[in-house]
Amino acid sequence: MKKIGDFKKFISFLEDTEEFIKVFKQFLPSPKMQYNLNEIAELYSKSTEEIIKKIEVKEELTFAGGIFKITYTSSKEFKVSMEGYFQDSAKKWVKKETNNLLPTSNLTESALKELQDAKEVSYEISNSAE
């Protein structure tokens, strides 16, 4: 298991995580509309880019890649989550992640069925600088 580091770094990590979640939640889908899985991923694409840029600037990290996941949790909810992998100047790996629960009423019938069958759908987040 990796060490978090000293307490100051831990506090910084918590503050960054709060910001990460705040930006991620700005792009929640409209509760009155229904989306397929690709549309959900696209809705979160812009917030994901913003989150990555903020982390790179604020923490002086370099984004390497990540995964956006849509996971079936129950007949009433599904989870969207993002894991981002960064490197610091010493080439140490840093993982940032966030998630949010959404009502299945945001999904089209076919998207809900697809998610129930697959249990989880993942999308690669690539480094746009590559």
Tell me the overall shape. elongated
Q: Ends: how far apart?
A: 30 Å
Given the structure, what is the number of helices? 3
Mean pLDDT: 82
- Which stretches are poorly predicted, pLDDT < 50 over at least 5 residues? 1-8
Helix content: 40-55%
The count of β-strands is: 4
Percent strand equals 25-35%
Largest beta-sheet characterization: 4 strands, antiparallel
Return the structural class: alpha+beta
**In order across it, which strands form the biggest sheet?**
3-2-1-4
Number of domains: 1
Determine Rg (CA atoms, Å): 16 Å
SSE string, helices as H and strands as E:
HHEEEHE
Properties at a glance:
single chain; 130 residues; alpha+beta; 4-stranded antiparallel sheet; 3 helices; elongated; disordered N terminus
Summarize the entry for a quick read.
The chain is of the alpha+beta class and 130 residues long.
Explain what you see:
- With 130 residues, the chain is of the alpha+beta class.
- It has one domain.
- It contains 3 helices and 4 strands.
- The protein has a 4-stranded antiparallel sheet with strand order 3-2-1-4.
- Strand 2 and strand 3 form a beta hairpin.
- Helix 1 packs antiparallel against helix 2.
- The longest helix is centred in the middle third of the chain and has 23 residues.
- The radius of gyration is 16 Å and the shape is elongated.
